[in-house]
């Protein structure tokens, strides 16, 4: 200790002794003066270090020592004030205390930020992170105190810069110590136990270890972000590929400085696991192979990724384990657990089928908490897993049916080959499956005697093969609810409901040309009508075999409204497009006051083209739609032509010669009756026309007027 240091310490001791001899009022006055001097020196030290560099003396000055000395004097004065309580003295002491607290916070913040650069150069990354966190907490406290804005802004700016520098250093260390690389089809995870130098190759005084890295990342709330990146890499490049192809080359190499785990090999492909292609013995062997390679990966995570990490990082270890298990469990469930579940519900009592998966799950016991593992819970509820498996299989079958590109159609109803569900369940078939007295049915159809007028009979039309198969699937699945026991009846009922919902989702999106292709629109309309017809009484005959709770709520009638809506939505666009096309082709027929001799030839040509558009759509509708629906569609389209023609004829006053010409002009419209409207009653050949075409009577009135004028 030199002479100046001994003199300074002696002066400080003398000053303390003289301060203790002062009265309480004098001590408070002295403290107020010293606090103001400490505040000024602290502000000066902050500005000198980070901004102006006023002098070497001030730059090297540490205001924290001065603040600590003042704090000791403040505590001594507090003891005297407490002994002689006075409101004025207590108020002065409190003001001094608030000011001193702010000075101490600013001095500590300055001290923490001032040493960050040196700590980074020395490799004390954990200390850096703690200093940054402490400085941030103290700055938050200082903002609520009465301090000058200018030094506080300087500290905030320096805090942001230092925090960014520490995070940049952590990014560099993370990339150096834990690196995922890819070369062709080979993936590598390289772990370095310690880093000896920074990115400028300047050696650290102390090597940065994995424990230091995890501690610093946790302090700056970056450990979970880095852990999520590792979880994604491990799941995508190691665990999931090994689950489907455990024979993929996997190797681990270790040295004193680090370890490397690689997967894949150049120019070599592995057999990918397909659950449906393996029998039970092969599946058990496959699970054993997966357990072997997964154990290697998880051991690498435990021993190398967390190399020499103490229990302070157990939360990071557990977090990664839970995230990894959450990523692989859905695949384990779908591709390993579900295929192991027996197909027979009576075999569910034997839980030995889950032993291979339980052994696979044990490999995660050290990484994941026991209460988060799922195989054990699945083994306790095999019936639910069995139900989910059956439902998934059923819906997969339906999805494959509906996703097929088979555009063929089949004729149903009337004399078609498909059984009518309502007639089957409500009627009493006669000999050889024929309907009873008063009932008429097609092949395989039974109608009850009280339905002699065919109200329950589905009309003859064309539907898609997908809709036909969907109904067959629904009826077969509903039958399973009776044969497979009451415990799984609800599964089959809900599977059928989901199957019909799949149709509403898949078919319109697959047939994207409904507004252009009239045939497809008509087939979708028929499909929806056909499915609605069968939903009315689907499962009616088996309800007595279902559980009481299911019997009260299991119905399909509520699905009919959505299919009716889909039927209208599939038909409306093509009809609107055809109506617009007919109006466009009519041209002058849609305008007033044009009918004269000069444009009769063009008017006739336009009328023929418009009638041709109607005829083209009508032929398609007649081939596929039920007769009543066909006549309704035809009436809507013919009304467009007939309405415009009737209005134009009513506007003109003609002579006998011109009247005969106009009658010949509208002959293509009159011919629509004989070519398109098929009447079922021989004695009333025009009844269907007037019934479905509201403008037809008006046209006939104008034709009779012209015919009368032409015979004069």
Quick structural gist:
The chain has helices at residues 3-21, 24-52, 56-59, 63-83, 87-114, 116-122, 125-142, 149-177, 210-219, 223-244, 280-305, 314-340, 355-362, 375-380, 382-402, 421-426, 465-483, 489-510, 518-535, 548-553, 560-586, 600-624, 627-651, 656-665, 667-676, 687-692, 696-710, and strands at residues 178-183, 186-192, 194-197, 203-209, 250-254, 258-263, 409-412, 461-464. It is an alpha+beta fold and 712 residues long. The strands form three sheets. The chain has a four-stranded antiparallel β-sheet with strand order 1-2-6-5. It has a two-stranded antiparallel ribbon with strand order 3-4.
Verbal overview:
By secondary structure, the protein is of the alpha+beta class. It is built from 27 helices and eight strands. A hairpin with a 3-residue loop joins strand 5 and strand 6 (258-263). Helix 4 packs antiparallel against helix 5 (87-114), helix 5 runs parallel beside helix 8 (149-177) and helix 22 (600-624) runs parallel beside helix 25 (667-676).
Draw up the topology in text:
Layout: H1 3-21, H2 24-52, H3 56-59, H4 63-83, H5 87-114, H6 116-122, H7 125-142, H8 149-177, E1 178-183, E2 186-192, E3 194-197, E4 203-209, H9 210-219, H10 223-244, E5 250-254, E6 258-263, H11 280-305, H12 314-340, H13 355-362, H14 375-380, H15 382-402, E7 409-412, H16 421-426, E8 461-464, H17 465-483, H18 489-510, H19 518-535, H20 548-553, H21 560-586, H22 600-624, H23 627-651, H24 656-665, H25 667-676, H26 687-692, H27 696-710
Antiparallel strand pairs: 1-2, 2-6, 3-4, 5-6, 7-8
